[in-house]
Amino acid sequence: TGELIGLLPVLGSLALAIGYTVVVGWIFKYTFLALTGQIAGMKQDMNQIGGMFDSTASAFGNNLWLVIAVLVTAVIMAMGIAGGIERANGIMMPLLFVLFLGLGVYIFSLPGSSAGYRYIFTINPKGLLDPRLWIYAFGQAFFSLSIAMGILITFGSYMKKDVSIEGSTKNVEIFDTAIAIMAGLMIIPAVFAFSGGDPDTLQAGPSLMFITLPKVFDSMGMGTFVGIMFFVLVLFAAMTSSIALTESAVSTFEDELGWGRKKSTLIMGVIMLALGTLSSLGYGPLGAVKIIGMQFLDFFDFISNSVLMPIVAVLTCVLIGHVVGTKVVADEVKSGAGSFHREKLHRVMIRWIAPILLVAILVSELASKLFGMFSI
Fold this sequence. Notes:
This protein has about 375 residues and is an all-alpha fold. The chain is about 80% helix and about 0% strand.
């Protein structure tokens, strides 16, 4: 049973990596467009900007950018954690943080942006009663914190024994929340400033970055340079997430099958390229081919986010909370920091609260997608 629970998050992270790599390919293309001045050349022409994103998400020729994304991911993976991921993160993430701050200050000065801040910080009591809001929030927490994907365990295995797990967790909580708030303060007011806060625009997902922000860059002094810096840094941020998703599968190949890192990375790259191609072409030439009513990219996202991750999380709660015992986790946390201030809260959450909420998420998602009982 333990081995099965351990295998499921690997499959989930693999399914998520397949879809995520497609998005990384989009970012590669936009980085190229920024470097060659093509984004700046579109000015604020919504038809051109929107058409560029549509072609990026659907055209057959754009599969080239998926290939590039997979190859770059594989090369960094083959270099190993310390040689590749840590070195890139140590330089690029602080620069991205500073750029976010600068863009946030500039967008604050734009006419019409104040409506965006009111939109973000105005609490709608009726909205809090909508179960969809909480489902979306839980789903975002899963994705943002890499819960139930095997990533935390995989990366945790590289930590030194004397590192405080509780302290590291606090850092993740603080910085993940701060970056999320900064991204919201940057993008949502920009939508109001340039698009009047159109609800359809606010719900547009990835196109918020690929359509709204190019208009912001065009309105700035040195906008071309800022646009180049933004997409380059976002590219590195996206690459680290792609690598994190891939790492759990590669390390599983190494540990369970005894393969070397380069061989494991090569096999993983071939799988991602093959299935990622289906996802990449799912909004174009293969648009008519659907699985339970979903295109390939949406299907892989559904399998990972809505099925495997909640199932793994529930099984983990049962295993740790009622079979193995939470003391095992508490002892491991204390071995590095000497204390575990949230031990009682952790015990209650793992044994009772988290499983109930997770089952609710799983049932609602399955009902929504498979049976159409209600729309999520």
